């Protein structure tokens, strides 16, 4: 496996992360970017979330991949470079290795440590595929190194992670993918709008795994900012914003408290919220329009019987 240096491919440095976090915490309505959810522990916790019966996106998408794999493979074709955005444990991409037969595989994720561990496991199983991985924050800028083959790049962005972006941000990312895809395309998973009860169960599960995942961001922030957040002083909160068609995740202060870090501090009143994530839900029409606006001209769409989720190949 070739591990490409994070310093070569990301614009935002560790110092930049600290500044970004500080700006978010000092805003009138405090917020933390959802990318900081995915430190090594957070990545493992998210993998656990995907195993929960209440968390429908993973199994629904997996079933679409399985039931329509021949059609998806026929649409994409074989060979080329498979570029896995937000790769995590790489299992979703691996499910296509035998059908798509990529010549090379590039895994990209915010948590480089977790990613390297996952890719190392793949190497022994697929020695004929060139494996590479990058720790990158592509939420601001996607930079595929020149060392990666330019012919037929297939971008893979499953799990409806595109829902974490506001529309202008999603459009910016998709436009970057389009500009760097050359003769390839984008295979993307998109969560569709559905009833509140299904969404609440998925984002506030009875075992409180999602709560642990959300609260862990405070420990991640402590490492980046050298702050003194105490996890036990907050609780996980979920809201459904119908006006924006999204689920919103927050951390709620359980008491009046002050968080400090070198050079600054922030007071939180009991009940005050820190926004950590939003997950937009699309219609088929709205995601098609977004892809068209990003420059993709042709789409093929597969959904589940309940229309909970869509898998789209865009060219």
From TrEMBL:
Alphabetized GO MF terms: methyltransferase activity
Pfam families: Methyltransf_33
Signal peptide extent: none
Keywords: Methyltransferase, Transferase
Histidine-specific methyltransferase SAM-dependent domain location: 18-314
Keyword Transferase on entry: yes
GO biological-process terms attached to the record: methylation
Protein name: Dimethylhistidine N-methyltransferase
Organism annotation: Polynucleobacter asymbioticus
């Amino acid at each position: 496996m070739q591990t490409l240096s994070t310093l070569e491919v990301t614009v935002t440095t560790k110092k930049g992360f600290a500044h970004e976090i500080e700006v978010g915490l000092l805003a009138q309505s405090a917020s933390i970017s959802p990318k900081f959810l995915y430190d090594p522990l957070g990545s493992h916790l998210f993998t656990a979330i995907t195993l929960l019966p209440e968390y429908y996106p993973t199994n629904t998408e997996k079933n679409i991949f399985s039931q329509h794999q021949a059609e998806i493979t026929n649409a994409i074709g074989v060979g080329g470079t498979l570029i896995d955005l937000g790769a995590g444990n790489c299992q979703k991409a691996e499910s296509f290795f035998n059908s798509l037969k990529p010549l090379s595989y590039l895994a990209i994720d915010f948590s480089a440590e977790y990613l390297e561990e996952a890719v190392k496991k793949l190497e022994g199983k697929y020695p004929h595929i060139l494996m590479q991985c990058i720790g990158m924050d592509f939420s601001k800028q996607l930079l595929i190194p020149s060392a990666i083959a330019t012919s037929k790049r297939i971008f893979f962005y499953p799990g409806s992670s595109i829902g974490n972006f506001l529309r202008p941000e999603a459009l910016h990312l998709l436009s970057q993918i389009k500009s760097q895809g050359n003769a390839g395309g984008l295979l993307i998973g998109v969560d569709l709008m559905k009833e509140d009860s299904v969404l609440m169960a998925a984002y506030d599960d009875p075992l409180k795994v999602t709560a642990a995942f959300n609260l862990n961001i405070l420990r991640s922030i402590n490492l980046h900012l050298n702050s003194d957040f105490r996890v036990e002083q907050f609780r996980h909160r979920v809201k459904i914003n119908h006006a924006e068609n999204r689920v919103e995740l927050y951390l709620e202060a359980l008491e009046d408290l002050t968080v400090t870090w070198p050079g600054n501090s922030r007071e939180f009143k009991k009940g005050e919220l820190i926004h950590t994530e939003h997950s937009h839900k699309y219609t088929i029409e709205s995601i098609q329009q977004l892809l068209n606006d990003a420059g993709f001209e042709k789409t093929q769409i597969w959904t589940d019987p309940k229309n909970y989720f869509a898998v789209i190949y865009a060219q």
